């Protein structure tokens, strides 16, 4: 029987990764091209993997949900970590979810997988939260190694001392103050509970983790529908002649510089009624794609 570790490796070896595609943007674009499964297809694939250990079925389940991992990862941008790293961790959680998913429970995989995806991302954030980057530029590195010995006493420096240190190290006073603040700070537990006896204690960092704003399956399907609508819009515009496309864009898509029929009429040397007719015909042609 194939173990979880073995099947994880086999599925992972076939996942698209940013390094293979050249950039994170290329990866995100690639995973958004993968079709979303219907509930029926999802159930059939899950049963094939559970009953027959069909790794192709597992791979298809994972691939079809990679865009959701990207969606979840974007919710953690505020932690100062690379979104590519978060996506990779989330993909691990997704694979774990696929292996534990029971299609008989009557829920969509995305609703089950979101907890595993977030768990892997949370663990990654926990491991990296205390790694404070106190010196990332040449000036900051100089400050990091010289600020402590430049201080004449314990405690915060006064304005005169800040000015002298900045002059001695050839950096700005703002950089001196920022580095002093970093060096004077202390780490706190990521998920440590606040002191129950201290009503004014700030919440731990874990309290700021993004919470689900709506049912994951609904969010996933809504995002997919928006992607499909956007793709149809691009296809519709591509099918128009240059003048019709320009009129539609400037009348409906350029929110900051929407023009009037008369302005377009003056530009193209025709009547405003003619511009209205061109616009109406173009929109009618585009609506045909959405109704198909």
Automatic annotation (TrEMBL):
Ranges for region Sigma-70 factor domain-4: 236-288
DNA-binding annotation, residue ranges on this chain: 261-280
Locus of motif Interaction with polymerase core subunit RpoC: 85-88
Protein localization: Cytoplasm
GO cellular component, as recorded: cytoplasm
UniProt entry tagged with the keyword DNA-binding: yes
Keyword Membrane among UniProt keywords: no
Sigma-70 factor domain-2: annotated segments: 61-130
Lineage top rank: taxon: Bacteria
Family statement: Belongs to the sigma-70 factor family. RpoH subfamily.
Database matches in HAMAP family: Sigma70_RpoH
Complexes and interactors: Interacts with the RNA polymerase core enzyme.
UniProt protein name: RNA polymerase sigma factor RpoH
Gene label: rpoH
